[in-house]
Every structure is written in structure tokens, then in C-alpha cells.
TrEMBL record:
NCBIfam families: mutt, mutY. It catalyses: Hydrolyzes free adenine bases from 7,8-dihydro-8-oxoguanine:adenine mismatched double-stranded DNA, leaving an apurinic site. Its EC number is 3.2.2.31. The gene is mutY. It is an enzyme of class 3 (hydrolase). Residues 226-352 form the Nudix hydrolase domain. It comes from Rhodohalobacter sulfatireducens. This is Adenine DNA glycosylase.
Length: 364
């Protein structure tokens, strides 16, 4: 066991990537990086991390910020509950822990958005506490090293790997150890075509010795991802302003603005779906008169095709029946509001229209 940890920590210290969160021992900054890195590529995170800390350099700055400001800084990074939870947790750190990120398990896991994985990462990297981290990279490295051929989707397999990692992590430099195993999985022990010749564990790796790196780890086929048809309404008023709605905080993409609409139901045309959704969400009767654009977007567990239709209110005054609030905004000011990625794509298309184009849609 000491051979494993010694080899991998020595390799890490020699080969680790130059990443901004590795240049600080500030628990707050390490916390930000760990939240952003969840299910997100390092190259994607770096610019967001740097901009976020420029905007919110301390936990006090984050705690005092408006949620809309936080989500605007998070816009495009995805998994927006991470941003909402981070904002909520920063207030707890300030109010309950005097602005200090907790260094005790029970306290740090009491923060919203921090589960066992993030707590282990933070406590080991920021405070040098002996907690082993297991993510996809760690699972791959340990599965290959020990020749584990069980399905890694199963909790029993994950638990076994957690136990092995718990045994391997050293008292000295536990943060370096955790980062080393993850770094090895990200850069050397990759899912396809691992560079075994550059691996410090190559000599003792069972999968490498048996030429089974293509077979290990084994992951059973995922369930088919559902695909939904989404109909949204682009409603213009006489000032060429568009109606947008603020999603409830507790919903998916909560706290972000959107063009109102929703999922097409069975035996319903897209135009009918648009009219029904706007009736349910805004309490208005609309005329759906032309399609602006279709676009596809993939989330983690489902895919959508979004169909955007120009609409005109025939009866009623719009009210936020299923959203936090609604607002009329011009295209000049729309970038001030945080939107999901699919809506941002629509906005980009809308901005390519000139005012005469908008008037054309309004008059037809």
C-alpha cells in the first residue's frame, strides 16, 4: 500500500498540471473549484473559476451577492443547482462559522450542496485530513490496478473501490494523494488508449499485465435517454420587448430566466402545446402565428428539441402563475439576465434580427 501511495504522489508532484486552484491554500477558493469541477471538464472550468473569484474574491462577497448576480456569473457552466447551493452555503459559512470554511466533517457536510465526495475533497486538499475521494477517474485507476471486472454502475463495486482507496490513502499528504489518483486517471489512465508506459503503477497493474485496459472498468449499458419536444413562445409587445419568466428556485434550472413554454403532450401539435403552456403559465390566450427556430440541446439525463414560436396575446394580462416573476425586456438589456444555454442560443438568433424584422413578426 505504501508503495502505491509513494509512487503516485511522487509522480503527481513531478507531473501535475498547472491549474489555478493548485496555487492556493485558501479553503474558499478550493471549495469554489471543487463545486465547479463536478461533472465539468477542467478546460471549461478554468475561465469560469477565474472570473468568479474576480467577481466574488471572498466568501463574504459571495454571501452578500444577489442570487441573480451569482447565476449570471455561473451562466453557461451548467448544473445550476451547484451555483444556487454554493450561494446558500456561503451565507451559512458567514452566519454560522464566522466566514471560515469548516474543517470538521459534520460541519462541512451541513452546508448545502456538500455531500461526502465534495467534503472528502475539501477536507483532504484544504485541511490535509485523511478522507479518500472516489470519482470516475479514481474508479478507473483502481479497477485497472486491482483487475476489478465488476460493473462499476453497481453500488457494491463503488463501495469496494472506496474501501480500497480508504486503505491506500496515506496520513501524510492526503490531499496530494487524492489529486494524484484523479490526475492519473485524467491524463494517463484515460478511458480509451491509456498511456500505460508513462504510468507509475504500470508494473503492478493487473489490467495492464493482462492487456485488459479495454475491458476494465466494465460499465453496463446506460438506459436510453428520453427525447422531449419543447414548445416556447416569443411574445412581443408594442415596444418590441420580449416576455421572459423567472423559473422557481426549487425547479431544474431554478433561478434562471426563460422564454415561457413547456413539453409537448401526446396527440398535440407544437402550436397547440405553445398555446396551452402559455395559458397555464401566464393565464393568457395567445395566437401562435409562425415558427422562429428549432434547436437541439442535451442535458445529463435527457435531450430536447426546442421549438420557438412567435406569439401574440389575444386575451388576458400575463401573470406569473408558475414562475417567480415575469418581465418585459428589450434585446438591448436581455444579456443582463441569466438564461439556460438553449435560451441563450435563441437570444443569439434574435439579436441577428433588426428592428424591422421584429416589427414584421409583430405585424403579421
Amino acid at each position: 500500500m505504501s508503495s502505491f501511495s509513494d509512487k503516485i504522489v511522487a509522480w503527481y508532484q513531478e507531473n501535475k498540471r498547472d491549474l489555478p486552484w493548485r496555487k492556493t491554500d485558501d479553503p474558499y477558493k478550493i471549495w469554489i473549484s471543487e463545486i465547479m469541477l463536478q461533472q465539468t471538464r477542467v478546460d471549461t472550468v478554468i475561465p469560469y473559476y477565474e472570473r468568479f473569484l474576480e467577481r466574488f474574491p471572498t466568501v463574504y462577497d459571495l454571501a452578500e451577492a444577489d442570487q441573480q448576480d451569482v447565476l449570471k456569473s455561473w451562466e453557461g457552466l451548467g448544473y445550476y443547482s451547484r451555483g444556487r447551493n454554493l450561494h446558500h452555503a456561503s451565507k451559512t459559512v458567514v452566519d454560522k462559522f464566522d466566514g471560515n470554511v469548516p474543517s470538521v466533517w459534520d460541519e462541512i457536510t451541513s452546508l448545502k450542496g456538500i455531500g461526502p465526495y465534495t467534503a472528502s475533497a475539501l477536507l483532504s486538499i484544504a485541511f490535509q485530513k485523511k478522507y479518500a475521494v472516489v470519482d470516475g477517474n479514481v474508479i478507473r485507476v483502481l479497477s485497472r490496478y486491482y483487475g476489478i471486472q465488476d460493473d462499476i454502475r453497481k453500488s457494491t463495486t463503488k463501495n469496494r473501490i472506496q474501501e480500497l482507496t480508504d486503505d491506500l490513502i496515506p496520513e501524510d499528504k492526503p490531499g496530494d494523494f487524492n489529486q494524484a489518483v484523479m490526475e492519473l486517471g485524467a491524463t494517463v489512465c484515460t478511458p480509451q488508449n491509456p498511456n500505460c508506459n508513462d504510468c507509475p503503477l504500470f508494473v503492478d497493474c493487473i489490467a495492464a499485465k493482462r492487456a485488459q485496459t479495454d475491458e476494465i472498468p466494465y460499465k453496463s449499458p446506460a438506459k436510453k435517454i428520453p427525447h422531449h419536444q419543447i414548445a416556447v413562445g416569443l411574445i412581443l409587445n408594442q415596444k418590441n420587448e420580449l416576455l421572459i419568466a423567472l423559473r422557481p428556485n426549487e425547479s431544474m434550472l431554478g433561478g434562471l430566466w426563460e422564454f415561457p413554454g413547456g413539453k409537448q403532450e401526446e396527440d398535440e401539435t407544437l402550436q397547440e402545446a405553445t398555446a396551452r403552456e402559455l395559458s397555464e403559465e401566464l393565464g393568457v390566450e395567445v395566437e401562435v402565428f409562425s415558427k422562429f427556430r428549432d434547436l437541439r440541446h442535451a442535458y445529463s439525463h435527457f435531450k430536447i428539441t426546442m421549438h420557438a414560436f412567435w406569439c401574440r396575446i389575444k386575451n388576458g394580462d400575463p401573470k406569473p402563475k408558475s414562475s417567480q416573476k415575469i418581465k418585459w425586456v428589450s434585446l438591448d438589456e436581455i444579456d443582463e439576465f441569466p438564461f439556460p444555454k438553449a435560451n441563450k442560443t435563441l437570444i443569439k438568433g434574435l439579436k441577428n434580427l433588426d428592428k424591422d424584422d421584429l416589427s414584421h413578426y409583430l405585424d403579421n
